[in-house]
Amino acid sequence: MSAPPLEKLAYVTECFMNAANVPDNLERATLEEWLVRWWQLERPGNHYAIYHQKKVYCYADGKLAQSFSLDAANGSRTLRCDGRKISVVNGQTFEQVAEVDVGGDGDGAALSNNNNNNG
Fold first, then answer.
1. What is the pTM of this model?
2. CA–CA dist 48, 61 (Å, integer)
3. Distance, CA of 91 to CA of 108 (rounded, Å)
4. Are the C-beta atoms of residues 4 and 83 closer than 8 Å to each other?
5. Which of 29, 45, 80, 112 is 20 to 30 A removed from 21 (C-alpha atoms)?
6. Beta strands in the chain (DSSP E)
7. d(C-alpha 78, C-alpha 91), whole Å
8. What gap in Å lies between CA 97 and CA 19, rounded to an integer?
């Protein structure tokens, strides 16, 4: 599976930050740039980010690869993004296992507008 085009990665990443209610500032722009580059270099789907309680946790193949604090974030939902789509996930489950797999099991509700299903 190849990475989506750069424009789509940037758009989905921006939607992820909007859904997490992260204000538009230098901290956000720096994280958005890092995530886009990470998703561009890595295989989407196996690499995903979780927003939970003012932090973004980045997982590569199910293992924590990086985390970022977002002190200015105001999002109350726990979100998962793999560079292709954004889903709401159970925050309590994330806290308990620190790894959430919502791929295809119907637990996540898509938030992004994915008009290009060709990948």
1. 0.77
2. 9
3. 12
4. yes
5. 45
6. 47-52, 55-60, 63-69, 78-81, 86-89, 109-110
7. 5
8. 23
Q: What would the two tokens of residue 91 be? A: 């925050």
What interhelical angle do 6-19 and 26-41 show, nearest 10? 130
Identity of residue 17: M
Dihedral sign for Cα 37, 99, 70, 92, please.
positive
pLDDT at 13: 96
Give 103's pLDDT tier (boundaries 50, 70, 90). Answer: very low
Residue 36 CB coordination number (10 Å): 21
pLDDT digits (tens, 9 = 90+) for 7-61: 999 999 999 999 999 999 999 999 999 999 998 886 655 889 999 999 999 998 8
